[in-house]
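User: Sequence recovery, please. Input:
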C-alpha cells in the first residue's frame, strides 16, 4: 500500500496538481490529508473538488477549514489571514461548506493518527519544538502520528537511549526507514510552504515496507500569484509564496 500524505493545501490548485502529477497516482492507493484544504489561496472550491475525485481519501479538519465555515472565530488570525478567510467563505458553495463541516478532527488508520495541529489540540496547537512534541506523545496511542499546521516538514522522535525528544528535518528524496519507534511526522505544506523552500511538499508512506518518502516539487508559483492578484487577495500572502515563507 502506498499512501500519499498531503497537508495545508490552502486553496493552491497549481501546487496540488503538481504534487498529484509528481507522485505517479497509478502507484498510490490512498490519500491522507492533514487539513487546511482552503484558506489563503485563490482556488478553495477547486481544491475541494480535486481531492474529492479520489475514492480512498481521508481528511481531517484544519483551523482554516473551520474558520471558512464560521465554526471558529478568526479574531486570532493576522489581518491578511482574516481578509483571505472572509474571501474564502464567500467563494464556497453549499456543497463545499458541507464537506468542510463533515471533516473529523482526528482519524486513526493503520496504526497512524491523523490530526491537523497536534493530538492534544487538533485544531490550534503548533508542534514546532521537541518540548511540545514530548507533551503530545501521550495524546495518541498509535505508533505514528501525522500532523500539519506549521507548514514546515519535521520528524519528532524519542531517542531510545537517552529518552530525549529530538527533531530532524527530512531530506528530499531520501527514504526514511521506520522501525519500532513512535514518531510525530509533519510532511510540510503543499500550498504555502514556510521552511524557506517555495516548492510544494508531500510524503509517501508505505506501511508494509516501513518507509516514508519525502519530496518537494516545483509548481507554477506565478500562476497562483496571478490568480490571487485577480481575486484581490492580500499582497503579503501573494509574495510569500515566492520565498516559501
Ligand atoms: Zn495551514
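Assistant: Recovered sequence (245 residues):
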Amino acid at each position: 500500500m502506498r499512501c500519499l500524505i498531503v497537508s495545508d493545501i490552502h486553496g493552491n490548485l497549481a501546487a496540488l496538481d503538481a504534487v498529484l502529477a509528481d507522485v505517479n497516482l497509478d502507484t498510490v492507493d490512498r490519500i491522507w490529508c492533514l487539513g487546511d484544504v482552503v484558506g489563503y489561496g485563490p482556488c478553495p472550491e477547486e481544491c475541494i473538488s480535486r481531492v474529492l475525485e479520489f475514492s480512498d481519501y481521508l481528511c481531517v479538519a484544519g483551523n482554516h477549514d473551520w474558520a471558512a465555515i464560521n465554526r471558529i472565530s478568526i479574531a486570532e488570525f493576522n489581518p491578511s489571514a482574516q481578509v483571505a478567510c472572509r474571501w474564502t467563505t464567500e467563494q464556497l458553495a453549499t456543497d463545499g461548506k458541507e464537506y468542510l463541516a463533515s471533516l473529523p478532527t482526528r482519524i486513526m488508520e493503520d496504526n497512524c493518527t491523523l490530526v491537523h495541529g497536534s493530538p492534544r489540540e487538533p485544531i490550534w496547537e503548533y508542534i514546532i519544538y521537541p518540548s511540545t512534541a514530548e507533551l503530545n506523545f501521550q495524546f495518541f496511542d498509535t505508533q505514528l502520528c501525522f500532523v500539519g499546521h506549521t507548514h514546515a516538514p519535521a520528524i519528532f522522535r524519542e531517542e531510545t537511549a537517552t529518552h530525549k525528544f529530538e527533531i530532524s528535518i527530512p531530506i528530499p528524496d531520501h527514504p526514511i526507514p521506520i522501525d519500532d519507534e513512535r514518531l510525530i511526522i509533519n510532511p510540510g505544506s503543499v500550498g504555502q510552504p514556510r521552511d524557506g523552500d517555495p516548492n510544494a511538499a508531500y510524503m509517501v508512506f508505505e506501511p508494509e515496507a516501513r518507509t516514508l518518502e519525502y519530496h518537494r516539487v516545483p509548481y507554477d508559483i506565478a500562476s497562483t500569484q496571478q490568480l490571487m492578484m485577480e481575486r484581490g487577495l492580500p499582497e503579503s500572502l501573494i509574495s510569500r509564496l515566492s520565498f516559501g515563507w
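Residues 8, 10, 36, 62, 64, 149, 151 surround zinc ion (CB under 6 Å).
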